[in-house]
Amino acid sequence: MIIEKISMRHMKMKMKLPFVTSFGTIQMKDFILVEVQDESGNIGWGESVAFSAPTYTEETFQTNWHILEDFLIPLIKGREISHPHEVNSIFQPIRGNYMAKSAIETAIWDLYAKRLNKPLYQVIGGKKRQIEVGISLGIQKSIDDLLEMIKNYVEQGYKRVKVKIKPGWDVEVIRQIRHYFPQLPLMADANSAYRLEDVPLLKQLDDFHLMMIEQPLAHDDIVDHALVQKELKTPICLDESIHSLEDVRKAVELGSCQIINLKIGRVGGLGESIKIHDFCKEHHIPLWCGGMLEAGIGRAHNVAITTLDQFTLPGDTAASSHYWERDIIQPEVTVENGWIHVPEKPGIGYEPDFEAIDSFTCHQKVF
Ligand code: OSB
Ligand code: MG
């Protein structure tokens, strides 16, 4: 296929509720939608998951725009590509900037699947027809508010609950949740809010049989997490630190974690995601698909990757309606009793809702 035309849109969408983590609050989302077109007019879609500020990892909406416009689009435009796995090596001269790379790379996978007239999940080797999902709940005004929310999501059927923790909002919060929900599959995500000297505090969480603690230490650490894992019974899961298969290999060899949170954007796209999946399968490392508060296009790609075997734990891909008044795909992603039924249409399987897309577009540039 020849990548004939590429378009970038600056999208602005407001979430129903602010999402509060140890690194800050997100409610307004500025993000990039990428559209790639081949020589026959087929179109593939990708979404950049970077936020407006570099508070989760370094990348932002604006750095992604710059890297896409000035480096990645010039490398890919007009090129003949026989398989999307080639995109990784075409982008190889550009260091880092995983979310920017992923926005085009995932669009090319969608395009490739549409050319084959097959659903993307099958093209990447997925077999599940439905996937299990959990919910990620931000920091709330009070523990009572959080308990109320948990009750609501458990009643809706979500398969596990993840809560955000930070110093001052941790042991007591988890103790209360456990008191009211003794059997709930529960986990905590620190988003890098702790340091090595907090190990005694983190050890207190061992009493609450959490499924895992996600990213307790620095966003760029792999080494010290191994020291923490040695001290804890609870499995550690890495999120922010993982940008590649090499990072996963090092984390597993060092014993820095027992579980991996995979985000397609954080590792540069579906090609690298598949490699990480295959490695985790071979080494019996449980994997699950994280979320970046995506709109419909990113959410659809998350659904597709989660159909691979080694995604053995529920992901953070909740229903569109949990985040948005109106999403940008038709139908929206829906969750029934904790399950998403995987769509069977070609490509990502959900249609772009052009009316919604246009209404949330601030600016578009075509290459
Ligand atoms: O650490 O997984 C995270 C949201 C924004 C940034 C980082 C994270 C999250 C979430 C929510 O936990 C995931 C989602 O519901 O999309
Ligand atoms: Mg996380």
Automatic annotation (TrEMBL):
One Pfam family it belongs to: MR_MLE_C
Record family assignment: Belongs to the mandelate racemase/muconate lactonizing enzyme family. MenC type 2 subfamily.
EC number: 4.2.1.113
Active site: 164 (proton donor), 263 (proton acceptor)
Described purpose of this protein according to its UniProt entry: Converts 2-succinyl-6-hydroxy-2,4-cyclohexadiene-1-carboxylate (SHCHC) to 2-succinylbenzoate (OSB).
Residues bound to Mg(2+): 189, 214, 239
GO molecular function, one term: racemase and epimerase activity
Name of the gene encoding the protein in the UniProt record: menC
Pathway(s) annotated for this protein in UniProt: Quinol/quinone metabolism; 1,4-dihydroxy-2-naphthoate biosynthesis; 1,4-dihydroxy-2-naphthoate from chorismate: step 4/7; Quinol/quinone metabolism; menaquinone biosynthesis
Domain (Mandelate racemase/muconate lactonizing enzyme C-terminal): residue spans on this chain: 143-235
UniProt entry tagged with the keyword Magnesium: yes
Species, as recorded: Bacillus smithii 7_3_47FAA
Catalyzed chemical reaction(s): (1R,6R)-6-hydroxy-2-succinyl-cyclohexa-2,4-diene-1-carboxylate = 2-succinylbenzoate + H2O
UniProt keyword Glycoprotein, yes or no: no
PANTHER family assigned to the protein according to its UniProt record, in alphabetical order: O-SUCCINYLBENZOATE SYNTHASE, O-SUCCINYLBENZOATE SYNTHASE-RELATED
Protein name (Swiss-Prot/TrEMBL): o-succinylbenzoate synthase
Cofactor: a divalent metal cation
